[in-house]
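Narrative of activities, Objective 1.

The group set out to show that a structural description can be obtained from nothing but a protein's sequence at a throughput compatible with the screening campaign. Below is one input-output pair from the validation batch, recorded exactly as produced.
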Amino acid sequence: MRQHMTSTELCRLTGLPMGTLKRLRAAGWLRAAKPGAQGRGHADRWSLAQVLAIAVARGLRTRGVSLDQAERVLRYLWAMPMTRLEEHFRDGQTCLFLIGTDVLPRLLPLDSILANEQIDYTTAASVGLLPAAVHVQRIWERIMAEAMRLEPTEVRTRKRKTVRP
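Output recorded for this entry:
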């Protein structure tokens, strides 16, 4: 299974426009796990955890979450090692808590969000702020399935012509 995706693969999977990714990278907001060299054929390589962070942040932005809130979630997931992320999932901590356009940058169990005795669901519904869950584990599973589907990146070698006197 591939451990990295190219910028093209990342954009196709997350729906992030390539121009946006390039602008974020040029501004220093994002840095690929394996930055490519200048020119064609030297694509950036993004770790699967980075793809997850970008996918979740992009999804939050499309749902009206502020740039600041989406960035906090992006940084939270970006900094998390894959082994720690999978520990969270094994422990049942699979979701982000979203209420209105506010999001808590921490993985929680789904039941603690949707069946929480401390939340007055009647009042929340009356003001249009029912809590919701972003199921990060499902997004992760989709990314992992895509990584399994992708062919291993071929290393291209260019033969040099030798000039003999």
